[in-house]
Fold this protein.
Amino acid sequence: MKNLYLKSILLVAATAAVASVGSVACAQAPAAGAPGRAGGGRSGGLPGATAEQTQAVADMNAALAAQNSAVAAARAELATVTFAAVKDEAGIRAAVEKLRAAELALATKRAEEFAKLQAGPNKLDPNQVTALVAAGGNPSAGRGGRGGGPASAPPAGGAGRGGGTAPPAGPGRAN
């Protein structure tokens, strides 16, 4: 029993880690080459993306809405049962299984939609795919905070935090 409980905790921790990596990636600067891309504005950063490519990625993500909602609901259910006043191992196991199934369905659907995108006229190049992965699959989610250049760029004139080189962007530093 204790071994299964530890596995459940590890799954929750791993899921949280994956989610935080995606949110940190979204909080960081877009990939190099962003100034010349089409679309401008707040678009998160597929380097050199055309308006059609940006729309194709948005369409791909829209097709994942139901699976994303199912994952969010399963995570919330797991959190609720995990932090309940009375420990319910059967409930935790059921919630972990529900989350596993929802994550698998999302990953499968994401792979199908990405394959469609890559088979179409708006295929992404390797640098754009790398940027899409780094952004957690949704480069247009926006980084929040101030607009402007890359989140890790120091202020003009080198007057960054203490002068010298800018500290690396990371959680809490991007905004």
The domain at 49-119 is CATH 1.20.120 (Four Helix Bundle (Hemerythrin (Met), subunit A)). Confidence is low (pLDDT under 50) at residues 16-43, 144-168.
